[in-house]
Amino acid sequence: KQEVTQIPAALSVPEGENLVLNCSFTDSAIYNLQWFRQDPGKGLTSLLLIQSSQREQTSGRLNASLDKSSGRSTLYIAASQPGDSATYLCAASGSARQLTFGSGTQLTVLP
Amino acid sequence: ETGVTQTPRHLVMGMTNKKSLKCEQHLGHNAMYWYKQSAKKPLELMFVYSLEERVENNSVPSRFSPECPNSSHLFLHLHTLQPEDSALYLCASSQGDREGKNIQYFGAGTRLSVL
Asked: How confident is the model at residue B101 (pLDDT cuts 50, 70, 90)?
């Protein structure tokens, strides 16, 4: 059974700092790895999807990497802003439709 | 807006009530999902419908009953719930393909409180 772990559970950084969020998964047989953002009381917004054949994906200030052999993914946020404050979730897809989520990292960017 | 709309946004019900959660997607997707998000726990997949047929049922108690009348609508019928069922219920949709580009789009959720 796939298990996804995210470290740290919470992170507080000053504005402008670059930061890395970590995600690990136990079963490397995945279709893809996705990163989501969740604002308080809201649903999830997809940020990046890395297919199993890819090593990284970039969108603006966000860069996600995937190392299947070690069961790890990282989300790098450059030049953080207060508007980046949210909970970031990673999810591993073990089939075309099944997602297993981590518990998330709650990020606070201080002005 | 993600193109996935959930109603109601908030629901308070007693343990003997019967209520339904509704989800509608305007994205032309062929799969829809129900997730449960409890405090301090990861999102749990409850049900998956693909082409209006249920393809996943992750050991969900029978007091939760899904219905997918067409590819755009998904319901979750609730009856005789327990206080531990209080959670955020999220609906998602996707257009899966063979390359695994199964990006799921989520609604804002229904915050359910069972008294």
From this structure: low
The three-state DSSP-derived secondary structure of chain A is: CCCEEEECCEEEEECCCCEEEEEEECCCCCCEEEEEEECCCCCEEEEEEEECCCCEEEECCEEEEEECCCCEEEEEECCCCHHHCEEEEEEEECCCCCEEECCCEEEEEEC
d(CA B34, CA A43): 12
Instruction: Examine the pLDDT at B95 and tell me if it is beyond 70.
Output: yes
B111, B9 contact by CB (below 8 A): yes
Q: Chain B: nearest CA to A78, how far in angstroms?
A: 24
Q: Does A43 contact B at CB distance below 8 Å?
A: yes
By DSSP bridging, strand B10-13 and strand B110-114 are: parallel
Set of chain B residues whose Cβ sits within 8 Å of the Cβ of A46: 103-106
Do the Cβ atoms of A104 and B42 come within 8 Å?
A: yes
Q: Coil, strand, or helix at residue B43?
A: coil
Give the pLDDT confidence score for residue B17 in this predicted structure. 87
Residues A97, B31: C-beta atoms closer than 8 Å: yes
Nearest-neighbour CA in chain B from A22: distance (Å) = 15
